[in-house]
User: What shape does this take?
Amino acid sequence: MNNESSASNNNEIWVVVYWRVIMKHRKMIGTLVLTAVILTIIISFCMKNIYGAKAIITPISPKDSGGNSIAAGIMQQVGGLSAIGLPDSSSSAEIVTLLKSNILREKIITQYNLLPVLFSDQWDDNTKNWEKRAWYNPLSLIPSFMGGDKRGIKKNEGIPDVWDGLRKLDDMVKINNNVKDKTITIVVEFDDPVMAANIAGYFLAELNDHMSSEAKRVALTNRKYLEQQLDQTADPFIKQKIYNLIAQQIETSMMAEVKE
Assistant: This one.
């Protein structure tokens, strides 16, 4: 009982001590709290609003229409046809890889002139010129300090280039592949909601253009190869099947042109 009473008294003493300290420095504590609140409000007003735009892609799985089995039968009779690449829908992994690739993103930056948009704080709309900033890329100063070769430094130092744009897009654009739902999501975060939606649309347009061009290229290659095999085949049954495959390649090429 004595120990419990002693512990209770000690707790009460410490509470009193803390309270006295608080009361003694209440003006300073109040000033600090008020300053923190004011700074938080000011910072929140100064920060840019970030808006998100989202585009969802659902890859279409190719339906088995019997074309593969027909081709397989022809391959058994004409060995050369094993080199043909039948038209097929791109897998989710291929689409994700393409969306994340620098090749596609560089096309988007160049075609839609995104550098003035991504680095609007350095772009002067009136003069249509860049405002140079010597501190823009600190890594470029390393060769000068180390006495290294300066040829690797970009030509217009202090002005954003395509590589700077690619790094900016890496921070802005996220590609998510949902294997369970079989969907691919493009998420763009930017301080302008309209431009965020536009950039998401640019990714979709460039993806569609690339896939359409690739489908046309494969269809044309397959068609030429099938026509060569047609001249070398005497069997009328095999010829008819080859004609069917050629018709499929023509249809694929026409559909790709429609998508463009």
About this structure: The mean pLDDT is 75. Residues 56 and 185 are 4 Å apart (CA to CA). The radius of gyration is 32 Å. The chain has three domains: 2-45, 49-119+160-259, 132-159.
